[in-house]
Amino acid sequence: MTDPSSAQEWGTEAGKLCLDFANTVDWHRSDRPSDRLTGYALLVSWAQAQGLLGEAASRRLLDRAGRQPRQGEAVLRRARALREAIYHIFTALSLGRRVDPQNLQVLNASLSEAMSRARLEDQGEKFGWGWQTEDDNLDRILWPVARSAADLLVSEDRHRVGQCADDRGCGWLFFDASRNHSRRWCSMDGCGNRAKAKRHYARERGQASAG
Questions:
Q1: How far apart are CA 144 and CA 100, in angstroms?
Q2: What pTM value is reported for the model?
Q3: Domain ranges in the chain?
């Protein structure tokens, strides 16, 4: 779990762009979720940390959002709606449940906009996806997120999405790339170490009681 007080530190442990986006809420599965996307500037910060934007592009977006705050707030609302749809879709899959059609509808709406902007680019030795857009289009951050979610959802790997098993309600999602699907924690440095320490304490206490 990333320290929510450090707004400029964004997790990249999930293994998929869309899952990292879903994880911009701390304690998502608890009764005290903490939203880290509290302004458009933080959405830009997250995108830059993920490698979606460079310094110059980030400055252009922030400049336009500063001049058009209502548009920036509208994009932020759409971003949060997309994030919650992604979170609930993949949480349902990780639990073996049916996906709520309303969440799929939200994703499809963002995906439709994204694909209308998608284009193929010659990247030298290979071709890749790019985006046809003005440099300061405030929505541009959402397009690769929607595409990432769609790509994962239609792949056989969708069943490799798991949710952190932390008993406090971390709720972060991750892509389990292990051979035997054994990953249980968002990260071993955070919730994994806490669980390990908790098990060790329980063993020590049990041995002391037996003694």
A1: 22
A2: 0.86
A3: 17-210
The CATH T-level fold of domain 17-210 is: Jann2411-like fold (1.10.3300)
In DSSP notation, 59-87 reads HHHHHHHHH-HHHHHHHHHHHHHHHHHHH
Tokens 């979720």, residue located: 33
- pLDDT (tens digit per residue) in 110-168: 999 999 999 999 989 999 888 987 778 999 999 999 999 999 999 999 999 999 988 88
Using alpha carbons, select from 33, 2, 4 the residue that is nearest to residue 169: 33
Kindly report the backbone phi and psi dihedral angles of residue 148, in degrees, each rounded to the nearest multiple of 5, phi listed first. -60, -45
- Give the three-state DSSP class for 32: coil
Burial class (CB in 10 A: 0-12, 13-18, 19+), 67: exposed
Selection from 10, 3, 12 nearest residue 34 by Cα: 3
Angstrom CA distances, 53 to 91, 103, 140, stand at 28, 27, 10
> Running DSSP on this structure, what letter comes out for residue 157?
G
